[in-house]
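Note to self: the last two entries modelled the partners one at a time, which told us nothing about the interface. This time every component goes in together.
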Amino acid sequence: MHIAEYALTLCLILLVNFGLPRMMPGDPFLNAEDDLDQPFAANLTTEQVAYFRAYYGLDKPLSQQFIGYFCGLLHGDMGYSIQFKESVRNMIFSRLPWTLFMVLASLLLSCLLGSWLGCISALHRTGSLDKALYTGMVLFSELPSFVVGLVLLFVFSVQLRWFPMGGGLSPFVPPGNPLSWLADAVHHAVLPVLALTVSRLSGFYLLARNSMMTVLSKDYVRTAWAKGLGAQRVLWGHALRNAMLPIITRVFLSLGGLFGGAVLVENVFAYPGLGALMGTAVGNRDYVLLQGVFLFMSFLVLSMNALADVLCRKLDPRLA
Amino acid sequence: MSAVCVQSNLRKPSRILAWLAMAFCALVVLMGVFSDHLSPYTYNIPSGKSLEAPSWQHWLGTDDLGMDLWALMCHGARTSLLVGVSTALLAGLGGGLLGSFSAYLGGWPDRILMRLTDLVIAMPRTPTLVVLATFWGPSLRNIILVLAFFSWCGPARVLRSRVLALQEEKFIVAARSFGARFFHLARRHFLPNLFPLFMIGVTSQISRAIMAEAGLAFLGLGDPLSKSWGLILNSAMSFRGIHYTPFWKWWVTVPLFATAFLVAACAILCRELETRLDTKGWNRGKKAPGGNHAH
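The predicted structure of the combined assembly is written out below.
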């Protein structure tokens, strides 16, 4: 049932992707005639326009065009970038590891740190520690990742010069031993990962705090205390196991937000991932590339969300 | 997820912080409303040398074209407010009304609307925004429409669940059994009970929309004719060598921290609103579901 919904969303995205360029005013041939002062200006006759229309399949009805587009996608054909004259698929796959690394690292960090702080807060719910943590997290809760990224960039790399200002690796370094390569990569990744982590942290914190508080007020936790179990046993054995469920769901569901944040953060740090590719595509109005990246990201996020749905039903029998 | 469940664990932000947040928001609103009269210079005509440091003539310095940064910031506040408020009104009120009506009507309109919110919520927000803004062109109206399209689902769902809960209440059932019609119910019972939720919905959407616009503008998708804070950041960051020259100390810092403070202030205000309504508002004296008691 839910899987069907995700598939439907994916279809919607496909339709949007297919429809957007066709909804734009004018067509590629009008455009080519328009820029007469451009080096590639072309003055096409009606026959030539008809020829090119047939060549690109634009004379067929929309339904057939869509089927062709869809079959192409199934073969992994996302077209060629206008700016770079390169297959969009290859460009995406060469950039993918950077983004995946960044997203997964910050997902792990923000989830672990956020849940830990949330549990601490829930345990000290009347104390000043909870008050300070909670206030701080609310202050940070809506900060977008690119604002955090810009602050980190100008404080730590421009002013203090602790970290490089951008890129994924130092340029002009001959390939040496893999250890120094790794150190260089990590050195470049620290600030982008940190920016993304900080912007997602409070979501996990608020969720973990709330979930833990709810669980701690349940009868079975009171029973556990009454049995005389130690604090560690009650907290980690009884409470946390039940408080974890919403957090696990959140891990998968936050992927959409993380990829969105990555788009902005990578543009702040010129990090060579998918988001920076999207930024370049926007800057050059490279529609084919932009749509390819968008489609790929949507597919990734939607399949992760579907996975989360399945996993949750497995973990929590009450939902099934 | 019921709203009550979440709210009972809320903590009230400290009084000073709430006042500070209120003051900052008020300042930004004043900046936006009186933006034409607050600076001796205009935002769209160069009024000094390019990249002047802050001085008595130019309080916040100038940008690369020699425009006064304070004038730009005031105008940016106006743009941001325009985007934020109109998106929030469209999404908060429109989405809320849609949700309430769908719960009131029930049946297949309700089912269709809920499926629709599922679809929209599952779409990855930022990439879709970027694609739509690129294709439709960066005019302020398009940005507002696109943002509203992505933000109406939250308020719609919250209001829907509230109306569903309200319809089970004894006083509504009683009023219905006396033959109360839609307009009477809406005016006397639904509106007073739903108004706080509408307020929370609209307030939280304002800062979200401002942030989303700033993000799009930062990527170069802002309306070039109406400078916003994000667009100032974008032009500063696309200035070659911004990292190596001291210009960032005013050109980047001012819009950056203004944006950050505005978001934080909005978040605090929202939390304050939620806790106030939670403690003495619509669910006073009622036990929250799930045995989850308020402190």
